[in-house]
């Protein structure tokens, strides 16, 4: 198989429906999801090294599949009959967020991304996920998108935050509070939520 075509050398790429600039809003949206998926793979490899984190590593593999589905749906934004994402994965993430949140101590203040290596990687995933969500929102302002994709990205970033805290708790590593943070969270506000 030949891996290069030279067709993109001029700064244009093929998408469903024709050719566009490589910085087109649609390419930027699903490209950022691809970037996120790569970081999720890195996080999965780190979590896999710890027996206590195997269930979360397994979940990351499922998340990678769903991120491919999200990218596909953004590429096919004008063909809802081929959408792959539904609200079911969003609901699954919500159930997991509720369960994982109970593993970490209550949170009152902002925390710094980090702690263990595995948690730090999950925080990287969280921030890239937020950027993917912003790119999907930009696309949605211009073109139709599957509503399940922005909802999934929003919930997924919350999942990464809560999973990072659960990882630190399982490994016996304390989250580091932001030194100048006031008490900002109540138990009714999910930590890391985009509100």
Automatic annotation (TrEMBL):
Q: Which residues form the Cobalamin adenosyltransferase-like domain?
A: 4-166
Which Gene3D superfamilies does this entry report, sorted A to Z? Cobalamin adenosyltransferase-like
Residue stretches in coiled coil: none
Q: Identify the InterPro entries for this entry.
A: CblAdoTrfase-like, CblAdoTrfase-like_sf, PduO-typ
Judged by the first EC level, this protein's enzyme class is: transferase
- What domain of life does the UniProt record list for this protein's source? Bacteria
Q: In which pathway does it act?
A: Cofactor biosynthesis; adenosylcobalamin biosynthesis; adenosylcobalamin from cob(II)yrinate a,c-diamide: step 2/7
Q: Which SUPFAM superfamilies does the record associate with it?
A: Cobalamin adenosyltransferase-like
Please give the catalytic activity noted in the UniProt record.
2 cob(II)yrinate a,c diamide + reduced [electron-transfer flavoprotein] + 2 ATP = 2 adenosylcob(III)yrinate a,c-diamide + 2 triphosphate + oxidized [electron-transfer flavoprotein] + 3 H(+); 2 cob(II)alamin + reduced [electron-transfer flavoprotein] + 2 ATP = 2 adenosylcob(III)alamin + 2 triphosphate + oxidized [electron-transfer flavoprotein] + 3 H(+)
Which Pfam families did the record assign?
Cob_adeno_trans
The record's EC number reads: 2.5.1.17
Keywords (A to Z) from UniProt = ATP-binding, Cobalamin biosynthesis, Nucleotide-binding, Transferase
The UniProt entry, under PANTHER family, shows: CORRINOID ADENOSYLTRANSFERASE, CORRINOID ADENOSYLTRANSFERASE MMAB
Q: Family, per the entry?
A: Belongs to the Cob(I)alamin adenosyltransferase family.
Entry protein name? Corrinoid adenosyltransferase
Q: Which species?
A: Thermobacillus xylanilyticus
**Gene that this sequence comes from:** txxe 2919-yvqK
């Amino acid at each position: 198989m030949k891996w290069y075509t030279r067709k993109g050398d001029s700064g244009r790429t093929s998408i469903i429906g024709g050719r566009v600039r490589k910085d087109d809003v649609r390419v930027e949206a699903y490209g950022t999801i691809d970037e996120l998926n790569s970081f999720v793979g890195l996080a999965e490899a780190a979590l896999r090294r710890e027996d206590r984190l195997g269930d979360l590593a397994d979940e990351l593999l499922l998340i990678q599949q769903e991120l491919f589905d999200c990218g596909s749906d953004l590429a096919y934004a004008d063909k809802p009959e081929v959408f792959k994402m539904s609200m079911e994965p969003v609901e699954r993430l919500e159930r997991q967020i509720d369960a994982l949140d109970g593993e970490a101590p209550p949170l009152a203040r902002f925390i710094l991304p980090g702690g263990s290596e595995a948690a730090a990687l999950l925080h990287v995933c969280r921030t890239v996920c937020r950027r993917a969500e912003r790119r999907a929102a930009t696309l949605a302002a211009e073109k139709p998108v599957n509503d399940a994709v922005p909802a999934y990205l929003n919930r997924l970033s919350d999942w990464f935050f809560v999973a990072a805290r659960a990882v630190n708790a399982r490994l016996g590593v304390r989250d580091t509070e932001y030194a100048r943070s006031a008490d900002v969270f109540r138990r009714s506000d999910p930590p890391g939520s985009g509100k």
